[in-house]
Design brief:
The protein is an alpha/beta fold. The protein contains ten helices and seven strands. The chain has a single domain, classed as Vaccinia Virus protein VP39 (Rossmann fold, 3-Layer(aba) Sandwich), CATH 3.40.50. Strands 3-2-1-4-5-7-6 form a seven-stranded mixed β-sheet. It is globular. The N terminus is likely disordered. Its EC number is 2.1.1.144. GO terms for molecular function: trans-aconitate 2-methyltransferase activity. Keywords: Methyltransferase, Transferase.
Length: about 260
């Protein structure tokens, strides 16, 4: 993540939906065809709960993990992950980097489309670069946050990412293919079956609502959540068994240079 972003991440809350959030990583990893990479980079590793999968997949590789959040780095180190606190904007792949995987990170880095060609150019021939980003900014979970923030009580209080925080799959495909890489790009909408009270609100509290939480004091943030909750319940109604379906679109791209 971008070190210029000085807001605070909560690793524990982020992992509340760990199984659901991990599934795209597995799907992304499955499309990487590297057999004997020298160095594998987990670019924006978060709490490190998935970094071990890279060592399991490629036991002879040097696995390098980095994240800009001090809280996430601390959580990863508690798991025994050797992780560096670093800003992805200033990152450059080492000459022996044969695989880079960045999962649910680049949506927080507005300039990442400009960075991608340089990263691929620095990779050795035959290396793999794989990314996954959320593509659900138009979903009710995010649109309702923007609508509420535009109302008089909250107007001008919080600065969010733009409604279009990431390119579309075809745009990633074109951007990466222009470097000469072989590219595979796609999208998947996952239907997550959630349980508990206000589960969609709980989900976005560790991601989309992070800028809101950091801009408001505790009482204001509680008031904002109280106003948002019934709107989310209407958009994502609970089923008769108490569970809630939460549609989540994600965008993937894999390039072999």
């Amino acid at each position: 993540m971008n070190a210029a972003d000085d807001t605070v991440w909560d690793p524990t809350r982020y992992l509340d939906f760990g199984d659901h959030r991990s599934r795209p990583f597995h799907d992304l990893l499955a499309r990487i065809g590297a057999t004997a990479p020298r160095r594998v980079v987990d670019l924006g590793c978060g709490p490190g709960h998935l970094t071990g999968l890279l060592s399991a997949r490629w036991p002879d590789a040097v696995v390098t993990a980095l994240d800009s959040s001090a809280e996430m780095v601390a959580a990863a180190r508690e798991r025994g992950i050797a992780v560096e606190q670093a800003d992805v904007v200033g990152w450059t792949p080492a000459p022996d980097t044969d695989v880079v995987i960045t999962n649910a990170v680049l949506q927080w880095v507005p300039e990442h489309p400009r960075l991608l060609p340089g990263w691929l150019a620095a990779l050795p021939s035959g290396a793999w670069f794989a990314l996954q980003v959320p593509g659900n900014s138009a979903a009710p979970s995010h649109a309702l946050v923007r609508e509420l923030l535009a109302e008089p009580r909250w107007a001008g209080r919080v600065r969010l990412r733009g409604e279009r925080a990431v390119p579309e799959p075809d745009e990633y495909a074109d951007l990466l293919a222009r470097t000469g890489a072989e590219v595979d790009a796609w999208e998947t909408t996952y239907q997550h079956r959630l349980s508990g009270d206000d589960p969609v609100l709980a989900w976005i509290s560790s991601t989309a609502l992070r800028p809101v939480r950091d801009a408001l004091d505790a009482d204001e943030y509680a008031a904002f959540r109280a106003e948002l909750a019934p709107r989310l319940r209407t958009a994502y109604p609970a089923r008769s068994d108490g569970t809630t379906w939460f549609a989540f679109r994600r965008i993937f791209a894999v390039a072999r240079v």
